[in-house]
Amino acid sequence: MSVLKKRVVFFLLDGARPDILNQELALGNLPNIARHIVEPGSNQSMVTVFPSTTGPAYLPFITGMHPGTCNIPGIRWFDKTSYAQRGWSFKSFRSYVGLETYLMNHDLNPTIKTAYDLFNEPYSVMNMINRGVRKKNNTTRFSRIWYYYYAHLTDHWSFIDKVTTHSIISIINNKPNFDYIFAVYPSVDEYSHIGSPFHARTREAYRDFDSQVGAIVKSLKDKGVLEETLFVLTSDHGLSETKTHFDIGPYLESKGIRTFFYTQIFKMRFEAASMVSGNGMAHLYFKNDKKWESGRTSIEDLLQKGLLLDELRHRREIEFITGVSQNGSIHILNDKGHAAFSIQNDQVHYEWQHQDPLSLKIPGNTQRKAHFSLDESYALTWDSHTPDLFYQLSKIFESPRSGDLIVSARSGFDLRDRFEHPEHKSSHGALCSEHMKIPLITNIKITRGTTLRSMDVFPTLLKAVGKPIPDGLDGKSLI
Ligand SMILES: [Zn+2]
To answer: Using 50, 70 and 90 to split pLDDT, how confident is the model at 58?
Structure first.
C-alpha cells in the first residue's frame, strides 16, 4: 500500500464520548471536524482499555500496547514484589498525580518503543507520557504541571486547551520538519468531572475544540502541508455521572483490615492495599498470612480467607470483582453469579455457576458454559455492560503490578470519596459501556474489522505514513 500521508497531528480529546461527539456533529456544531476530518475520512466507535483512565489509556496510542503489557495497570498501583523486598520505597507504589506523573515514563516497560522513538521529529504537547522525545520537542515539559495546577484552582480548563492549540500552531509555523504531534486537550474530561458529561459547559468544550481545529487547519494550509497531514481524533475514555461514592479503602479499614490507600500512605503493618483509578476501578492487594510476598494471591486463597469477597460482590456499587485462579483462569464475581474463563489459542472457554454474571446473550446455550473465539467475544460483549471484557481482563492481569483483585464500579457509582477534591460528579476507569467506548475519527478511510481497539491506532498511523511497524504489538493496523 502506498504511503497516504507524511505527518501526523494526533488530537487526544480527553474524556470525549462518541455519542456526544456525534450529537454535536449532527447538530452542525463541529463544522471544522466535519469538513476536514470526517468528510474525507471516517468516524466510528471503538473500545479503549481497562483501566479506562487518563494516563494508562494514553499508552496504546503512543505504543500500540495495552497498559497491562506496558506494566502501568492504573494511575495508582502497588508492587507486592518490591514491597516484599524493600518495604516502603518509591519503587513499591505509585499515584500518577502531580509531580509523580513524570514517573510514568520511568515505569513504562523498558522494552517498549514509543512514537517518540519511531518518528524523526516528534513533538509532545500537554502530554504526560513522552519517553523518547527530545527535551526541546516536549513543548510543555515543565509548564504542564503548573498549567494543570492553575486550572484546577480556577476551573479555567478551556485556557489549557488554548495553550495546546497555541503550541501546535507554533510547531507548524516554526518547525517545518515536524512529522508527529501528540496533543492533549483536557477540558472535556475536567468539565465532565466537575459537572457532567452532558453539561452545557462540557458541550461548549467540544465546540471550542472544533474552532481550534479550524485554526490548526488554517495554519497547515498556509504552510502548504494540509493535504499531507494525517489527523487522528480520539479520546482515552468516556465518563458517566456519579451519584454515590463508595470509599473502598476506608471500607476495608472499617472491616478491621488495616489498609494502605491514598492519601493515607504513611503507615506500616498494613494487611491490604487499595489503589483506585478514575475513580471507577480499584486494584486490591492482600498480604499472605504473616508477610508480603511476591506474586499474586489466587482467587481460591482469597475465597478461603473470606476477605469480604462475598460481601463486596453483592454491593450495589460494584459491577464485578475479578481475580486469577491457581490454574491461571480469570474469575468474575458479582451479585448475579460466579464465572471463570481461560483463553487458549485465541479461543475463550467460559463457564459459570447459577447465572451468567455478565448476562451475555450467548445463542442456544443451556449448559452454563460457552466457547467462542477472542475476536467473536468482541461482538458478543459490544452491546453488553462490559464491552471487550475477555480481552481486557486477560491483558490487565499480565501486569505484575495489577491487584490480586480488581474491582469495577457500577455506572452511577465510584470508589473514592473523602480524599477527592473537588468532588467528582462524573467518573471513568471502570470496564463498563459508558467508560469503554471512545470515538475514532480520521481523515483517511478506515474500514472496521471484527475488532477495533485503541491499540490498533498506533500501527495504523505508522503504516499510513510509511513507517515500519515494530514486531509483537498488541494492536494491528486497520489499513
Ligand atoms: Zn482522561
So the answer is: very high
